[in-house]
Amino acid sequence: MTPWKSGRHSSATRRRPRRMFLGFSLACAALLTACGTPSSSSGAPPAETMLPAPVSLPAPSVGLSVGRETVPGEAEPQLPATVVDYQGEQVTITSIERIVSLNGDIAEIIFALGMGDYIVGVDSSATYPPERTKTLPNIGYQRRLSAEGILALNPTLIIGDEAAGPPEVLAQIRAAGVPVAITADPPTLDAPMQKIRFVAQALGIPQRGERLAAQVEAEIARARDLANRISNPPHVLFLYLRGTDVQQVAGSRTPVDVMITAAGGLNAGAEAGIAEFKPLSPEVVVAAQPDVILVLEKGLESVGGVDGLLTIPGLADTPAGKQRHIIALDDLYLLGMGPRTGQALADLAIAFYEIASQENRP
Ligand code: ZN
Q1: Which of 113, 123, 197, 286 is most buried, by CB atoms within 10 Å?
Q2: Alpha helix locations (H) across 126-245?
Q3: Tens digit of each residue's pLDDT (9 = 90 or more) over 210-240
Q4: Which residues surround the ion ligand 1 when the cut-off is CB under 5 Å?
Q5: Could you tell me the distance, in angstroms and rounded to a whole number, from the CA of residue 232 to the centre of ligand 1?
């Protein structure tokens, strides 16, 4: 389902010297929530020296640039600007004075383009950059928007991606005469560049968009290059958790499947025959036998951290459970397909590499 699904852990791995990765072990340490505390019955070697046990992921790693907020480019936005939205409709933008962003990834892109000062409202999935998004008026969750709250901000441009809705609300806003520019957001690694170019075009700064897109594309390529050096890809099970009420496994045809695969892992959910999201069950856990469990930070918190996670039936007996190979990442960072996608991929690739190497130890 993705172009990277198979045949990518090739001979390139064996030709590269191991020491290339020594510089990356610190980043990995920051990433793994818990590591190297094998259960007493397990004969696995301790790994404390490599991987201590901090809790979640701070800024990345690997010499890739960290969270840029400005990109030099055109002095002034060129307006009016015209974009073609995801349904093929032309949208003309005459003012970007007051922008409402409907999605977290879109807000992050606007900030990355250096245009954050024009935003007057964000949705609740907009969490990056935290110090800026926190202080902006909130229009609620991207999929459950209401027209009143948005129009009350007197926007001159509403911009979002196809996750924004419901459609009636967007129609209501259009009927009020405010331009609504909605981009496609396919679950592919092209999505970040596609969305960046769309947003930059709508804001009248296409050159800045090209520059940022090229930067992100290069970071993604670099991360995939790291991923391609993993010779024995770990089996990675992604769990979507909201306490004990919602516990789901990601299979094929999910954005996280794209991320796991591109970072050099095998999606254990997909391997267990799951498509999209299915409820977690002991049978799935047994079938999946993950080397790594990947969760969202909020999800891990909702089950009481790593110890709570490992009380979910079956998990403690998997290789991931015995080694406490749990990776927790922020949801917008891991799944947003935004400007930090290359960094997220690199973090995953480094962690997968470290885990794969531990399993090789005598
Ligand atoms: Zn989105």
Answers
A1: 123
A2: 130-133, 147-151, 167-175, 191-202, 206-227
A3: 999 999 999 999 999 999 999 999 999 999 9
A4: 103, 105, 161, 163, 185
A5: 32
